[in-house]
Amino acid sequence: MARASGQKLKLLYLAKILAEETDEGHAISTQELIGRLESLGIHSERKSIYDDIACLQQFGYDILQMQSRQGGGYYMVGREFELAELKLLVDAVQSSRFITPKKSRELIGKLEKLASRHDAGKLRRQIHVVGRVKAGNESVYYGIDALHRAIQENRQITFRYLEWNEQGQLVPRRQGRPYRVSPWALLWREENYYLLAWDGDAGMMKHYRVDKMAEVEVLAEERLGQEAFGRLDLAVYADKTFGMYGGREETLVLELPRQMAGVVLDRFGKDTPLRREGEDRLRARIAVVVSDQFYGWLAGLGRGVRILGPRWVREEYCGRLQEILEQYPDRT
């Protein structure tokens, strides 16, 4: 009975061996396949291996035979993911700040199984290239699952929102009082994952860092804020919200050097209105959420950029710069 059971599993084991141990540069001979199957308690003969390989090929596995003086062998090609594609996915996982180091290792380990063991080693070398700040909230994955479910089922949610304290610990805001919102979309921006949700108490759309959301619970009540969400262009919303910090939305006119056109177009999109001003200057009209993070970005562009309007933004920006200068009374 055990022998018959092993024969039923033979095709599955053959497919597994070929997928994990072979690729274009590493074939396995018929005799090696017989030996590998024998170690699993499955007796095979050369002819049965030929027939089994043919069955796998007929089913759709892309298995080729390598011919050589040493006898050649079989190897699997045409996997679901090419090695270059797996490297991109590995780097995306490794660079995602909301994924913790522990979960990154687990996900990358699963991606390695999509390649042969020879190529899996190349993926492991790949992940040591980058070292980025990672999240510390291990429950984020369950939270994301709950958020997707709430959006799909049109439900409100509650959660506790966390922030870092001076001891480097994530602690609840508002003395742990839960937030209650209507989730509408998940956004990827500035290497972080954000929830866009309607805050019924404030009567406005807000966004929250997903890796700082804990104890997410899906409620029975239906979502609010559908009309406000329907008016949003998510791509535009993300582009004009610097660092995903909230603030007052405004249309600004900037004057800047012509050579900085690319900086503006990269940040706000290729359809941003630009107008020539003299030989070497431009005017740009941009829609932004005015915040300290926007002012920081603007200051980083240097002396060549000026806010022409509206006046309140220009005056507030100058006031921020003055406040910074006043922190250095001993400057010369």
Tell me about this structure.
This protein has 332 residues and is an alpha+beta fold. Helices cover 41% and strands 25% of the residues. The strands form three sheets. Strands 3, 4, 5, 6, 7 and 8 form a six-stranded antiparallel β-sheet that branches. Strands 10-11-9-12 form a four-stranded antiparallel β-sheet. Strands 1-2 form a two-stranded antiparallel ribbon. Strand 10 and strand 11 (281-290) form a beta hairpin. Helix 1 (2-21) crosses helix 3 (46-59) and helix 4 runs antiparallel to helix 5. The longest helix has 20 residues, at 2-21.
Question: What's the topology here?
Answer:
Blueprint: H1 2-21, H2 30-39, H3 46-59, E1 63-66, E2 73-76, H4 83-95, H5 101-112, H6 117-126, H7 140-153, E3 155-164, E4 170-172, E5 179-189, E6 192-199, E7 204-209, E8 213-222, H8 226-230, H9 234-240, E9 248-257, H10 261-268, E10 274-277, E11 281-290, H11 292-300, E12 306-309, H12 311-325
Helix pairs in contact: 1-3, 4-5
